[in-house]
Amino acid sequence: IIIFNNLFFTNEFNIFFKFYKSEFFFGAKVFEKMHLPQIELKKVYRQSDEHFINILNRIRDNKVKYEDLITLNSLDDVNSIDNDSDNTMIISTTNRKVEEINNRKLQELNTPCQVYNATVSGKFTDFPTNKNLRLKVGAQIMFVKNDRDHRYYNGKIGVITELYEDSIDIEIENGYGEIEEINISKDIWHNTEYEYDNKTKSIKTTVVGSFCQFPIKLAWAITVHKSQGLTFDKVIADLGYSFACGQVYVALSRCTSLNGLIMKT
Questions:
Q1: Cβ–Cβ contacts within 10 Å for residue 147, how many?
Q2: Using CA of residue 24, residue 26, residue 27, residue 30, what is the dihedral sign?
Q3: In the predicted structure, residue 2 carries a pLDDT above the cut 50
Q4: What are 201-205's contacts with CB under 8 Å, separation 24+?
């Protein structure tokens, strides 16, 4: 099943809706043909505090109580956790605010700055990371692509330990809770356009551009969108400019406990 990213802003819009009722997974043709069993997932693994879990569930269901708001709004003492710690994540709603925070954090590092320039060819405008990537040893980063060798995945957090001309050393936590160091090189993304062929009744793909850069970006702060699926012990939630359904729930539920959560706004 292929779901197009940013579907409503691409040329594939008209092609897609010739065949599918919606852009969601349940619009796939297979759901019309198969009788699938329904499995309800009930156990929460990220949080163990029932009080916090109940608050999150009421936020998700849009049934927030006044007492829930009092609890959340009392978590406004940024000094109560070490917001300069590597394992504290600032989650905000817009790319602009995230970039401001990350640039400020990078400037605060006393290590030398190195700039890595991407190679862009053909038609490619929506860059997955910075075209000119400014990095320092000690910078907290996030991977923005899955590794072919399964060492990291899109969204994994790490810390830069060494910068070379053609590669970078990064410390990451492996699947066993241990810290290990990996060396990465530049990777390549392709911009693909789609066209429906009425004769063959199939979609033709054409690569029209490419982008080559290290698959990382600064990540002392990340957007709510990029935080999906991740878990943090300490979160500073800057959600005053939330603009989409589910953003507040996703951001708050990234944190493992109320003790590690700070409401900046």
A1: 15
A2: positive
A3: no
A4: 203/15
- Contacts with 173 (C-beta within 8 Å, 6 or more apart), sequence order: 179, 180
Q: 24-44 pLDDT, tens per residue?
A: 888 888 888 888 888 999 899
Helix (H, G, I), strand (E, B) or coil at 31: helix
pLDDT, tens digit, for every residue of 195-220? 888 888 888 899 999 999 999 999 99
Across the chain, where does the E strand assignment appear?
A: 88-92, 113-117, 119-122, 132-136, 140-143, 157-163, 168-173, 179-184, 187-197, 202-213, 216-218, 221-223, 234-238, 261-263
Check the CA dihedral 210-139-227-31 and report its sign. Answer: positive
**97-100 — which CB contacts under 8 Å span 24+ positions?**
97/221, 97/238, 97/241, 98/221, 98/222, 98/223
Say how many CA atoms lie within 13 Å of 55 toward its Cβ: 21
Check if the beta carbon of residue 119 is closer than 8 Å to that of residue 161: no
**Mean pLDDT, rounded, for 172-178:** 83
Please, what is the Cα angle at 137 between 134 and 143, to 5 degrees? 65
Quick one: which of 204, 202, 224, 210 has its CA closest to 92?
A: 224
Alpha helices in 64-215 (DSSP H): 66-73, 95-108
Kindly tell me the burial class for residue 10, based on how many C-beta atoms sit within 10 Å of its own C-beta (0-12, 13-18, 19 or more). Answer: middle
217, 133 in Cβ contact below 8 A?
yes
Q: What is the Cα–Cα distance from 214 to 109, expressed in whole angstroms?
A: 20
CA 46, 52, 54, 55 dihedral sign is negative
